[in-house]
Amino acid sequence: MASDFRWVKAFPVLNDGSELDRMYRENAERILLQSVAAATMSAHLAAAALGYNVWWVTAIGQEKAQRAMKPLLGIPEQLSVLDILCFGPAAKAPYKRWKKTLGEIVNWNRFDPAHFMTDAQIDEWVATTRHKVMYKDAKNVD
Known about the structure:
Strand content: 5-15%
Shape: extended
Number of domains: 2
Mean pLDDT: 82
Number of helices: 6
Helix content: 40-55%
């Protein structure tokens, strides 16, 4: 039983003036935003898994979106809209987009230097290849 009390003492409760409490307070906004992003991404993935098209709009700093959404949804002025998810059934059937093969992106047990691209190589890929594959069906890549 005594070991249980030592465990509780080793992990202080927030709002107790401890170093952990101070660190949490300093990072509270970042922690909140990361939590909102994780929840939004989970909802996005769940909707996509159910076959919906999803558009994730970050509303932070988007005053026009805030002004449009608050009255529409009855959100009080003192609250802020952090994220907006628009989703619904697809207007047309999705297509399989081009993407790199698994072997081109996965590293097993250690980093594969063959996957490394210098800044110059990335710039070259963007300038010469990206536009050929970005919005193309996997079968229609130039």
